[in-house]
Design a protein that fits this description.
The protein is built from four helices and two strands; from the N terminus they run H-E-E-H-H-H. The radius of gyration is 17 Å and the shape is elongated. The protein has a two-stranded antiparallel sheet. It is 64% helix and 3% strand. Keywords: Membrane, Transmembrane, Transmembrane helix.
């Protein structure tokens, strides 16, 4: 199984194409980090005394959209899996207590929704990325 999802050709990619794909990978990683950190800090968002699960919407959109963008832009299945890995690392760090005992993602229902929806989106997109079922989304 090849890591590259673009059709194979006999010629090597040009320098400009290499720069575009490398820049795309950097943008994907930065967007994944930004979405993960923003989502983690938006978990306890309250409006008029009620929790608003905006973080779950952000994480589902990012964990579905960024792998699709990576497959289209970078043409690499490995890069398409990176947003899920970044989200998982940020969640692990955000659930660990700091020196004063505080945590970013506390034990409340929006946190549970955030964690379950993010994990589900990563599982679905990871499976579809590895199996290669997303080719119709990345057509030339």
């Amino acid at each position: 199984m090849s890591n590259d999802v673009a059709p194979t050709s006999s010629e090597a990619p040009s320098a400009a194409e290499y720069l575009v794909r490398t820049g795309g990978a950097v943008v994907i990683v930065a967007a994944a980090l930004l979405a993960s950190v923003a989502g983690a800090f938006l978990v306890p968002l309250k409006v008029s005394g009620s929790y608003l699960p905006v973080a779950a919407v952000i994480t589902v959109a990012a964990n579905i959209g960024l792998p699709l963008l990576a497959l289209w832009w970078v043409r690499s299945r490995l890069v398409a899996l990176i947003p899920g890995l970044i989200w998982f690392i940020v969640v692990l760090l955000a659930t660990q207590p700091d020196s004063s005992g505080g945590v970013v993602i506390a034990n409340m229902w929006p946190a549970t929704v955030y964690l379950l929806s993010g994990a589900a989106a990563i599982a679905v997109m990871g499976y579809l990325t590895i199996v290669g079922s997303l080719r119709r989304f990345i057509a030339e």
